[in-house]
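Intended use. Records like the one below are meant for learning the mapping from a protein sequence to its folded structure. Do not use them to infer anything beyond what is encoded.
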Amino acid sequence: MNQIIPIQYINPVFRPPSEAQSLILPVTNGCSWNKCTYCEMYTAPQKKFRVTDEQVVLESIQRCGEQFAGQVQRVFLGDGDAMALSTRRLLTLLAAIKDHLPKVRRISSYCLPSNLRHKSVQELVALREAGLSLVYVGAESGDDEVLLKVSKGETFESTRDALDKLGAAGISRSVMLLNGLGGRLLSKQHADNSAHLINLTQPEFLATLVVSFPQGEDRFRQAYPEWAPLNQQELFVEMEQFLQALELKRTVFRSDHASNWLVLKGVLGSEKERLLQEVRNAIDRPQTSRLRPDWQRGL
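Structure written out for the chain above:
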């Protein structure tokens, strides 16, 4: 007898690298903002934002439970931003996951800061108690001028407020920043203000990627025509400046995405000096540093 496919996906499907072993459960399609000029993830016509019918999601959870109840330990709520859903709907879905997938130990989601504007800390506590334990926040920059030029739809304060709410609720935060997003013109303030944002919010996880445009720069340059990309050494200099300005107690740091030439992994702040030395070595002696060849960057 043929098995019924438990989940119907609308391709392409995106997820954070650390969710490779997770069940991807689409509760929305696309991104509720989808105006960031650097982002190519949700621009396809079939990825226009919509909320997946609640009954469809509940039936998918039930079917996954019938087929994989003992196997699924992690669930990622896709697509671009499950936190656009109401707290009531999220609680309903989280309860269904608990009922039908009892082995699940971690539930996570992408999160636009603006979608927490109308969610209270008490609501977020309820979501955490129902199983939502980790969210990925694409801050991209802590600099308001950079954020405006890339049509992010967020500010330093809106991102800070969201991260503070999540922290107060006990939900772990994985913050993503884009190395090189400000270009040469705004590199210094991009690094300094991004570090300031991270210092004030002290997220549990922090990751950096290098801004890149596999489909071309035209869309990005329409809003930021004076943008000039950083070369490899300039990206390292910006990273050094960012790391030097960080004052963290305990944040797991990763700069190992395919876009990065220099892979960095450590805990900030206990390993700050080691990470800084690795970056300085790459600046001063790139030929002796273990840099990822351009053809391996997977872009």
